[in-house]
Structure formats: C-alpha cells, structure tokens
Amino acid sequence: MTVAARSLYDVLGVTSSADGDTLRSAFRQRARVLHPDHGGDATDMQELHEAWTVLSDPTRRAAYDRELERTAPSSRPGSTTSTTPPPTDAPTAARRPAGSAVRRTSRRQAWVAGVQAQIIRLSRLAGRSATQTMLIRGPRADRAGYEAVVADIVTALASDTEPRLRAARAAGAAPLDLGVAATLVGIRLEAERIRRETTTADDEVLMRAELLDRMWDVLAHELPSGLTAQLGGNPDLARRLRRR
C-alpha cells in the first residue's frame, strides 16, 4: 500500500482553507517545537519553513493549490498509477543519472547544506547580540519574546540558500565570505518583504525590524565596507516603517 505524500498544509498542521493569520500562528507554534535550539530536527524545521515560504505567499499558494488539485487522485476518476518498470532494454542513462552526475550533485548539495548551516549559526549569533542590545536600549518585549522573533528570522534567513549564494557571489563576495554575505542578502530580502507587506507597524513588526537592522550591523563588521555597499547596505527598516 502506498502512503500519500504529505501536503504543505499537513506540514503546518492546518486545513487548505486556513487564512493568513492561522497559517502564521501554526508556523510559529510548530517552529518553537521543531527548532534545533529546542531539541527539534533540522530536516523537519527546513520542511516546515519550505511549507511556510510557499503558503505565506498568495501567488505561490494559489499555484500550489492548483497543482494540488490537479494531482489529487479524486480529481481523476478512474485513473490508475502505472507501476510498470522501465523496459529492460532502455538505455541506462534514461533510467538513472550517470554516476559522475550523481556525485557532482551530491557534492553541491553537501556544500549548499554546509553554507546553510553556517547561515543558521551566524544569524543565531547575530540575533542574540541584537536581542541584548534591544533589551538594554528600550525593549518592546521580554527576552523570551525577542527570542521567539529571532527564531522566526533565523528560519527565514535559512531559506532559498542557493539564489542567495548567487547574489552574494554577484556582489563580489570571496569564498570565505559567502556565508556572511548570503546572510546579509537574506536580511535585505526579509526586510523588503516586511516593508512591502506592512501598512501599519505595530510593536511586533517594529521589534522585528529593529532586530533585522541590528543583525545587519553585527554581521556587516565581518566584511569589507565595499562589499556591504554592494549588498545594499543596512535596510534601515525600523526608521522607514516609523515614517509611515
């Protein structure tokens, strides 16, 4: 008996009719349980974030829903899934990638996973430093509140690693600087997402914005000023949101 693959809604533990607030709440609850800092599994955490990345974006979610409906067994009455193996005389290359291609792919995946782990480590450290600064300057929440937001930010920064690595390379990052530079690319993208989606900034949004701005400063000290300029500089998100 074949077990059906879980949908992204299953990963978040919600129904396909869940609204945006329900999705966000479910993501945060699951993230607190699955986050490696709290004893969770990194693979499960990555799966959770991938589900959130798709379902939190209306365009991506609509496309996913269409694909989910198209591939659902109930949408194809009377259809059957072929279990016929490929013909024995089919070329080997058609049945599986060549060994060298598999090894190249495996090496690249391992390298990307290594950089992703570095991004997670760097963003956690920067988040802790930023939290300490915010608690001293004038906190909007207690330490636990800041740590929950930092956990969300870390998850966001660890997503879409490959395109962020490409952006870091395009900006001129040296191989040893790629982890830091890719993290800064992620901070800029997350700041842009918040700026684009925010109409009125409440305390939680401003807290997230202040953390992102401070995390940028913490990490930018690791890189040459010319490179950080090429990466776009500090997003200055909190000030921009306050001016609205």
Q: Can you give keywords for this protein?
A:
244 residues, mainly alpha, Helix Hairpins, 2 domains, 68% helix, globular
General description of the model:
This protein is an all-alpha fold and 244 residues long. It has 2 domains: 8-66, Helix Hairpins; 104-242, no CATH class. It contains 12 helices and no strands. Helix 2 runs antiparallel to helix 3 (42-55), helix 6 (99-137) runs antiparallel to helix 7 and helix 6 packs across helix 9 (178-197). The protein is globular. Residues 74-86 and 88-96 have low confidence and may be disordered.
Write the layout of secondary structure elements.
Blueprint: H1 8-12, H2 20-34, H3 42-55, H4 58-71, H5 92-95, H6 99-137, H7 143-157, H8 161-170, H9 178-197, H10 203-220, H11 225-230, H12 237-242
Helix pairs in contact: 2-3, 6-7, 6-9, 6-10, 7-10, 8-9, 9-10
In total, the number of strands is 0
Give Rg in angstroms.
Answer: 21 Å
Please mark out the parts with pLDDT under 50 across 5 or more consecutive residues, or reply none: 74-86, 88-96
* Through-space gap between termini: 57 Å
Shape: globular
**Mind describing the biggest β-sheet?**
none
Sequence of secondary-structure elements: HHHHHHHHHHHH
Mean pLDDT: 82
The SS-based structural class is mainly alpha
How many domains make up the 3D coordinates?
2
Strand content: under 5%
Q: Figure out the total of helices.
A: 12
Percent range for helical residues? 55-70%
